[in-house]
Amino acid sequence: MRTLEEVRATLEIAKLKEEDLQKTIHCLSFGDNVSSADYCLMELDDTLCKHIEAGQSLVIRGDKDERAVLCSGDNTYDLKIADTSNLLLFVPGCRTPDQLTNSQDSSHVAHTQIWGFCNSYWELRKHRPKLKKLKKILMENPYEGPAIRGQEENTENRYTMEDLLERIQASEEEIKTHLETIHACQIDGYWRVLDFDYEMKLLGHVTQLVDSESWSFNKVPLQNSLEELAPLEPKEMIEHCLNCYGKRYNENDKVFYALHEDKVCRGVALMLLQNAVKFNLREFQEVWQQSVPEGMSTRLDQLKSVALVDRTSRPETICLLRVEDLPEDTLERFNHLFTLREKWTEDDITPYIQDLCGEKQTTGALLTKYARSSMQNGIKVFNSRRPVAT
Amino acid sequence: MEKRGSVDGSSPPEWLLVELQGEVITRHNSGLAGNVMGDLLYTKEGVPVLIVGHHILYGKQVKLEKPFAVLTKHSSHSQDSLGSHDNSVITQVPMETNQQGPTSTSYSVSALIKRKLIFKTRPKPIITNVPKKV
């Protein structure tokens, strides 16, 4: 271990005057741990730092094919190695000038160990969670309604929240929100997504009841609905349908639902569009308006991100195109969209790329990066940056 | 000596980072452990100075824009041993593996780093005419 005399000798050779320096001199040496490979450095943002300071734990998820992600309570981050050309040393006992007391009269040596070093670290980038897989695995066994007498219910491929947390690269909060978006519900402790036809059947029961009872669709009584529809479907399913398509509220100690016009109209449209590849737009709009509950108005903008209108064909047509059926990877998504249609207006393409935006990213920025723009008949259109077979 | 962050002891200690350009070259092949690296001093104005071998480096103290966590890896343990740690634990969960039995890697946060001393100026060689006898 270096002595004060040795240090003073070094100072003299280096032509540094002791009186110009602060009293504490740290002699740095490498500790025993430095050569082991069992440590690494990870960059944090403010949220994670506070998380760690509060003693909360984090999880890193990933398998061989997927890159690793870090999940905290409600956020997901991509992990990426960043190399630096510099050497980073971690020194536990080293003090900075503001921490030195300088109370001693003379210089003294503080023997300080370097605990570890590296020249790369894990970089974090807050990422949109990979949730497409969630619907995919729940669709392995969609719920089609209560088992018909004599038929056995399919009990394979059912997932609890714990199962989902293990398989999906997202935080619990993100998973819960997405489950609500895809109208999933818990049956016997397992999260189930409804078979589309069954979901539409439930919605049909509710809307027909509203019409036949002449209720306002803003004031659908829960109790009456459950009583009237109990012979047809389980009460939990009726209530689940009302939760998905309406907003619950209390009035005079009674529970009511205000059906959400946009959600109901969109559901009905999906039901109609499923049956063919393309529809004549005008015919579709007529049938659609007739099929929704009395008092509700259909509008094409209710179908953003679920249907695509073609105004260049004669007659004009509409077809089913759901953003959730499209590739999750950004580049693959753009390639797919440009394969479907060579040129897109910003209005048409935006609903299909909105979910690709990362933190603080806009659809405009994505379009600049992944597409090329040109003018067509006075309107700005976007096409692929590379030749695409249509 | 470790610093305790908060009263309940759940916050990891804060360490200092020293950043250098280039590699540290040792004369010995036996590895770095136990070897002296250099002397770190501060001028009265608070400028950090590092003497490494025959080089003198001047640096500055910087607050990190993004703090670092020093993670120490642990081979897979049973769940009860985790309770004794007072630092945050990061568990690596393998997904859908065909391996038998749970094999998760866990990391504990050994320290947080919020400030660094960075030595970027080109090291000035220390020129000696006469080696000083110590």
How does this model look, in words?
The complex is a heterodimer of chains A (about 400) and B (about 130). With about 400 residues, chain A is an alpha+beta fold. Helix content of chain A is about 30%, strand content about 25%. Chain A has 13 helices and 18 strands. Chain A has helices at about 5-15, 45-55, 130-140, 160-165, 170-180, 195-210, 220-230, 235-245, 260-275, 280-290, 330-340, 345-350, 365-370, and strands at about 25-30, 40-45, 60, 70, 75-90, 110-115, 115-125, 185, 190, 220, 245-250, 255-260, 280, 305-310, 315-320, 345, 370-375, 380-385. In chain A, the strands form 6 sheets. In chain A, strands 3-4-5-7 form a 4-stranded antiparallel β-sheet, with no helix packed on it. A 3-stranded antiparallel β-sheet of chain A has the order 10-12-11. A 3-stranded antiparallel β-sheet of chain A has the order 13-15-14. In chain A, a hairpin with a 4-residue loop joins β4 (about 70) and β5 (about 75-90). In chain A, α6 (about 195-210) packs across α9 and α9 crosses α10 (about 280-290). The longest helix of chain A has 17 residues, at about 195-210. Chain A is elongated, with a radius of gyration of 31 Å. The mean pLDDT of chain A is about 90. By secondary structure, chain B is mainly beta. Chain B has no helices and 8 strands. In chain B, strands 1, 5, 6 and 7 form a 4-stranded mixed β-sheet that branches. A 4-stranded antiparallel β-sheet of chain B has the order 2-3-4-8, with no helix packed on it. The radius of gyration of chain B is 21 Å and the shape is elongated. Chain B starts with 13 loop residues before the first strand and ends in a 9-residue tail after the last strand. The model of chain B is unreliable at about 1-10, about 25-30, about 75-85 and about 95-100 (pLDDT under 50). Chains A and B meet through α1, β1, β2, α2 and β3 of A and β1, β2, β3, β5 and β6 of B. β3 of chain A pairs parallel with β6 of chain B.
